[in-house]
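Researcher: Before we compare anything, I want clean individual predictions. No alignment, no superposition, just each chain on its own. First chain goes here; please echo the sequence and then give the structure tokens.
Model: Echoing the first chain and its structure:
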Amino acid sequence: MPNLNGLLEAGLFVGNLSRARDFYERIIGLEKLKESEAGCVFIVAKGQLLLLISDQKARVPSRTPGGEVPPCVSGAGGTLGAGHMAFAVSEADLDRWRAHLESHGVEVLSEVVWEGGARSLYFRDPDGHLLELATPGLWGLDW
């Protein structure tokens, strides 16, 4: 079987692109790489991208000079809605993240202390996606 080299991109469907873009840029602090009427691409870390895709544009094919990208939502009416993503953060930054989120009116829904000591904070973005900030040790991984 061929190897995978990591997660290149994760995509979230959003109802209001400008609101979502502002949240991930201003609150989460991601650097915008590219933007169009269809969506926005952010750099999460080297070689890792977050795509915000307009829920309207997710329903139709996207034509590019190199070919057509199929719709993100299946013709059978596949679902849009809340998804989940976790961002890796250092243990030292977790409490600063909590304060930062709360100072911007973002409710921290819960904190989990995992077996082995890793911690996660959970909150939602403006479209209801469940986001997580996780410290080293989760899934036995270190960063």
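Researcher: Okay. Second chain, same rules.
Model: Second chain and its structure:
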Amino acid sequence: MTENLALFFTSFLIGISIAAPVGPIGVLCIRRTLSHGKLIGFLSGMGAASADTVYGAVAAFGLTVVTNLLTENTFWLRIIGGCFLLYLGIKTFLEKPADHAAKASQSGYLSAYLSTFFLTITNPMTILSFAAIFTGPWFINKTGSPLAMVAGVFAGSAVWWLTLSFGVGLFRERLTANHMAWINRISGAIIVIFAVTALITK
């Protein structure tokens, strides 16, 4: 139970850090919140959260099946994954908030959900991010359930989109590009911490 809670909490943070960088999907959710209300904005975010969960499940359950193979190649997985995460973290930290929304239909609740699900699921960087994270030393030797990982990723991503949509709805006049830039910096810093941990852990 304790191991599953630890896995859930770690995956929860990962779900937030992957969802939080403000790119075209984030801009789309913000625009939909401002134009059509908090519920449409939240459902748009849940489409992205669902896609993150799909990729998180692929990475988590796939790694469980080949645990022995991965533990035999931990060093190279750690180096490759750590380098990729370092690149991703620095890129996220330096990235400026997108100045235009991703193009998608905004007609109806189902359309809001499915459009962002499709836009996120077709991004190959997402699966690479989860694969790199789940090969890190904080996961490779854990014995908890992969369901805890998947649930944590979904919960973290969902909480982020709930916070973003309702926060924009309540404080839309105060949310500036500078705030979005800081969101990118914090997310990038979290990913860099994971990367450095992977590279220095023996």
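Researcher: What stands out in the second chain?
Model: The chain is about 80% helix and 0% strand. Additionally, The radius of gyration is 17 Å.
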